[in-house]
């Protein structure tokens, strides 16, 4: 199938994104502490690397997702959905115990913005860098993300009082659509405790490290990967009617049992809606999917912008 052409609408720099917040972990044990709580390796994370990671329950269900970066030798920033920040910070703080790390909400001090297209190179960010590369630009940091419809993107974190990065204004709604089109889900309140990481393809976008030490839910996550018990995956879809995170997805002809859940959704700039749906693999093969009810708005499955990994 032919790859989509780069979107001319996805160019520029967003305002500070009020949907995202920042947790700061500071201290000599910051990396080791997060390493023991999240699905990714933070101990070996260098200054030019970032991490996609999840916080899970002991049953392996995701209750938050993060993009983590090392802002200083003993400072790690975790960008997450703002609606989950307070509960996530409280939960992480419960496990600090004797670790030499201080956790806090840094959202008021650090602005998070999206960069797309030519705005990357205009701000000294390599548009050709692979996902999760971290570039230091003055006091700011830019993390290269998965592209959306062929357009390079990055997440910019910098002092809230500093001038915005260079570039034309990109509205936040278009950025939200690009997040969905990238195929990488940012967990929000409607779908907390609903998925193990692989149900959102996190193992295929470097959100899980299967070689690191223990973390809450590790046994369940590893079993899902290596014992072939995973029956759900996340798929990119489009629809002509509004979609919302947490909305159930049904196969035509079966009004009783949903086959999936909308994990993240956003309106498309040209009309319609885009969403990432976590659903049964068998339902994808059967086709004819609908949102809300078995005769609700039809969903069209589109190619993911990355391959699903069978072997880790």
List descriptors.
312 residues; alpha+beta; Gyrase A, domain 2; 6-stranded antiparallel beta barrel; 6 helices; 16 strands; disordered N terminus
The structural class is alpha+beta
Second CATH tier, the architecture of the domain at 12-181: 2-Layer Sandwich
Tell me about the largest β-sheet: 6 strands, antiparallel, barrel
Query: Could you report the average pLDDT, rounded to the nearest whole number?
Result: 93
Strands ordered across the widest β-sheet: 11-14-13-12-15-16
Instruction: Return residue spans where pLDDT drops below 50 for at least 5 consecutive residues.
Output: 1-5
Strand content: 25-35%
CATH topology of the domain at 12-181: Gyrase A, domain 2
Rg, Å, rounded: 19 Å
Shape: globular
Number of helices: 6
How many beta-strand runs? 16
H/E order of the elements? EEHEEEHEEHEEEHHEEEEHEE
State the fourth-level CATH superfamily of the domain at 12-181: Probable tRNA modification gtpase trme, domain 1
Portion of residues in helices?
Answer: 10-25%
The CATH C-level name of the domain at 12-181 is Alpha Beta
Distance between the termini: 25 Å
């Amino acid at each position: 199938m032919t790859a989509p052409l780069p979107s001319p609408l996805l160019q520029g720099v967003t305002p500070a994104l009020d949907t995202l917040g920042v947790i700061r972990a500071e201290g000599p044990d910051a990396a080791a502490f997060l390493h023991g709580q999240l699905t990714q390796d933070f101990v070996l994370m260098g200054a030019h690397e970032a991490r996609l990671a999840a916080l899970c329950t002991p049953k392996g269900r995701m209750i938050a997702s993060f993009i983590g970066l090392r802002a200083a030798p003993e400072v790690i920033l975790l960008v997450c959905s703002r609606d989950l920040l307070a509960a996530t910070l409280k939960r992480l703080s419960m496990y600090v115990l004797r670790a030499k790390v201080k956790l806090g909400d840094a959202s008021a001090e650090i602005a998070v913005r999206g960069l797309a297209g030519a705005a990357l190179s205009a701000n000294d960010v390599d548009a050709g860098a692979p996902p999760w590369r971290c570039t230091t630009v003055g006091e700011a940091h830019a993390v290269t993300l998965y592209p959306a419809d062929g357009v390079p993107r990055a997440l910019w974190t910098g002092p809230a009082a500093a001038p915005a990065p260079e570039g034309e204004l990109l509205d936040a709604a278009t950025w939200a659509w690009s997040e969905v089109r990238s195929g990488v889900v940012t967990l929000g309140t409607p779908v907390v405790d609903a998925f193990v990481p692989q149900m959102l393809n996190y193992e295929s976008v470097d959100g899980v490290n299967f070689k690191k030490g223990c973390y809450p839910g590790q046994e369940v996550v590893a079993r899902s990967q290596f014992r072939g018990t995973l029956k759900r995956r996340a798929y990119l879809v489009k629809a002509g009617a509004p979609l919302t995170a947490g909305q159930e997805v049904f196969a035509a002809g079966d009004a009783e049992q949903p086959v999936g859940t909308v994990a993240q959704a956003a309106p498309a700039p040209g009309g319609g809606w885009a969403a990432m749906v976590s659903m049964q693999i068998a339902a994808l093969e059967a086709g004819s999917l609908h949102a809300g009810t078995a005769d609700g708005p039809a969903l069209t499955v589109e190619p993911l912008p990355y391959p699903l990994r069978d072997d880790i």
